[in-house]
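User: My collaborator sent over this chain with a note saying "see what the structure looks like." That's all I know about it. Can you take a look?
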Amino acid sequence: MKSPFFATLALFARFIPDPNCPTAATDGKDVFFNETFLRSLPTAQQDGVFLHEVLHAALMHVLRRGVRDPELWNVAADIVVNGMIAAQGVFELPSGTLRDAKLEMLNVEEIYELLLKEVERRRCSMPDLREGSGNCDSLSQAQKAALENHWRNALQQATVMARSTKQGTLPAGIDRELGLLTSPQLDWRSYLWRYLVQTPTDFSGFDRRFIGRGLYLETLQGESVQVYVAVDTSGSIDELQLSLFLNEVYGILNSYPHLLCELYYVDADAYGPYELKLDDSLPRPQGGGGTDFVPFFEKVNARWDGQSQAVCVYLTDGYGNFPPEAPELSVLWVVTAGGLALEQFPFGEAVRLFSA
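Assistant: Without extra context I'll predict from the sequence alone. Here is the result:
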């Protein structure tokens, strides 16, 4: 009655009393709770505690942690689910529950990246993400796939149930998390192929130059794979973010051995172009000033012949001066955690970049 979406998710969880559990916890599959603790709470808070653990499991917070610090990841995940629960207005959480209104509208990966900068102040007093059956290190690939399928099925059914009700909407915050869980990680080969090749029949077999290296790459007919890459080197980009950007540049170079890549470092000015090929080392970054996106697009516009297939990739935090008009070329914005909201980019496609 309170939430068809959350109620449906709860049907997919198994609730297990555990006297060794101080309050409540999940291992990514089951929900464990201390009966004495639960009885000490009013009914509305009991619902809130159970919902908190179900959301951790359903949103695969245990599986998504990877190699990140478990305690800090738990803090980030708590901020997300507590924000979702509070937004409903019908559930309560026990006193002292972790909240951060400035962060809870972000996803867990983004919050974790931001918390890394204040790690000692953000330790979890009561971790509730267990190192049990959901621990990535202890699961086989088949077990992880089964657990993911279990909760993806749960989320799908809960979404259908929620949208079939009179309200017809999902709980606040769930749309954001569903988008993250259903979107694959950026695959540069797939992305560049989608943007640079006009039809599936634009290739004729494999490029024989690379078969000996075990690379079965399509031979493009009459098209060169041209990518203009901008790396934000303004003062707002720290060393970790710059390192992530440069790793993505290597990923672009390795997506197609016959790719034509022009690299620019950009703050309030655009430095370059640096023409790069596979196995080239990257030039030393330049910048450190303010952020202006206009110089990069002006330089690309002056160099592009207006005919060849090409795409612009801009790695940035998104905070800067945008051109008044969209360029003719397709644009992919690759945005750091904590950067500008993806829907606020005035043109192109925007995706979020996270560290491992």
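A starting point for your reply to your collaborator: The longest strand covers residues 226-232.
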